[in-house]
Amino acid sequence: MPDSTKIKITDNIALRSEIEKIASSLNQVDLSGWAVKCAMHVMHYSYIEFPSDKTIADGFQILESWQKGEATIHQVRKAGFKIHSVARECKTETAKAALRCAGQAVSTGHMREHAMICSDYAIKAIQLAFPGCVNKITDEREWQLTQLKCFVL
């Protein structure tokens, strides 16, 4: 897992570090489940531009199939790329960050490192939706941590 963000965000570094430590102990299927939760938590920021895009729903479905051993890594990777192509069509940066979060969540089935990038894009979506509100960022990281702990035995 990367130990620094790949995207520019304002963050609660202590919470991100704790999330990263726990995430590194999960198997890839559970990690992808957590990433999907992170993505779904911010997806509403994309609904103004893409209220019900089939590409996104299909991507989550392919990841779910992969989690059950019914889809290939190649299919997962391709689905993630398709979601990122939808993100490139966004007019607002907030919607783009939410869709990038979804694309990274799906891509977690391909490479575990995408889970932390997914969580970072969720933070970016929050940061863009609530400029200058560090409390919202901390709230999101705390929510992510709580969700992640549900996957720890």
Report on the structure:
The protein has helices spanning 13-23, 28-42, 54-67, 73-87, 93-107, 114-129, 134-149. It is built from 7 helices and no strands. The longest helix has 16 residues, at 114-129. The chain starts with 12 loop residues before the first helix and ends with a helix. The chain has one domain (13-149). The radius of gyration is 14 Å and the shape is globular. It has 153 residues and is mostly helical. The model has no long low-confidence stretch (mean pLDDT 94).
List keywords for this structure.
single chain; 153 residues; mainly alpha; 7 helices; 67% helix; 0% strand
Give the SSE layout.
Layout: H1 13-23, H2 28-42, H3 54-67, H4 73-87, H5 93-107, H6 114-129, H7 134-149
Order of SSEs: HHHHHHH
User: Radius of gyration, rounded?
Assistant: 14 Å
β-sheet strand percentage: under 5%
Average pLDDT rating: 94
Overall domain count: 1
**Low-confidence runs of at least 5 consecutive residues:** none
The helix content is 55-70%
Shape: globular
C-alpha termini separation: 20 Å
Short summary of the structure?
This protein has seven helices and no strands.
